[in-house]
Amino acid sequence: MADVRAFFESYLPGKLEKNPGLASEINAVYQFALGDAGSWTVDLTKDGGSVSEGEAADAGCVVTASGADFGKLLDSPASAMMLFTMGKLKVSNVALGMKLQKLLS
User: Fold this and answer.
1) For 41, phi and psi rounded to 5 degrees?
2) Structural domain boundaries of the chain?
3) pTM for the full model?
């Protein structure tokens, strides 16, 4: 299973740094509420985007899952639909949730 903390602390900031236009392409604030893996904010409304630990008051999309289930999603992004239909992955804004594929792939 993927290391969720490493995803938010290293992988995602590195991806945003290598692809500076990605943040403006998505242009949204996401909050990830991941149980034992913590809460994370990904703000893609700022130049280059930012990733921080904690909750976002102005999130356009809240993604909720257990840390273990989110780790499975990171290992296999194609499993997102299965986790969603099983109720193990919740997304408050489906349209913005679909844009997450650009971050996860």
Assistant:
1) -115, 130
2) 4-104
3) 0.92
Contact status, residue 23 vs residue 49, Cβ threshold 8 Å: yes
CB 65 within 8 A of CB 84: no
**Residue 75, Cβ density class (10 Å: 0-12 exposed, 13-18 middle, ≥19 buried):** exposed
Average pLDDT over residues 72-86: 90
The pLDDT score that the predictor gives to residue 79 is 87
- HEC-encoded secondary structure of the chain: CCCHHHHHHHHHHHHHHHCCHHHHHHCCEEEEECHHHCEEEEECCCCCCEEEECCCCCCCEEEEECHHHHHHHHHCHHHHHHHHHCCCEEECCHHHHHHCHHHHC
CATH code of domain 4-104: 3.30.1050.10
- In percent, the amount of the chain with pLDDT more than 90 equals 80
pLDDT in the model for residue 55: 94
